Amino acid sequence: xxxxxxxxxxxxxxxxxxxxxxxxxxxxxxxxxxxxxxxxxxxxxxxxxxxxxxxxxxxxxxxxxxxxxxxxxxxxxxxxxxxxxxxxxxxxxxxxxxxxxxxxxxxxxxxxxxxxxxxxxxxxxxxxxxxxxxxxxxxxxxxxxxxxxxxxxxxxxxxxxxxxxxxxxxxxxxxxxxxxxxxxxxxxxxxxxxxxxxxxxxxxxxxxxxxxxxxxxxxxxxxxxxxxxxxxxxxxxxxxxxx
Length: 243
Known about the structure:
This protein has 243 residues and is an alpha/beta fold.
């Protein structure tokens, strides 16, 4: 079942074409590693999928809803962790999660249950009454993940989900993603290739807004000398210069 279906999606910023007519699908049970060098078009693609940027051409269907004609339904049906997830420094962690629940119309006992669940799964129970402005980068990142999960969405789009986390915290988040994987469609953008190898069952690599490869990690590694890092370098480094 396709929970994400991207059809000839395109976005330009003036003369710069950030996303150049890409198409692919992601199914329930997929954990897709969405890879590419800086400036490849990854974040732009994810922002279009979440309804934060309108495409210049093409479209995408997220959980049955078109990102152009039904963008509110798209936002309701997914959880999004941005690369620089916004938060209100003066709010407490609990206050932030209550605010997100209110925005998503989760109320009463369901709100308490939802907050308790993500506080436990994202390991933020100990800072619930602390103001966000006093949190470490790792705790802020985990709060960002918690707000993306609080409404238990079918589709998760995560931009650098383990950025700022220590090795133990990274492993906890990876375990959480693995636990959720069978029931959701998850797209992860990251530069941590070992993370992709550990938790993703598919890889899409893009550069200059175009898809270079759509493969399983095992197949891609086998094609490039037994190394995902080597595959990334082979596919994205231009002759005579850096990527």
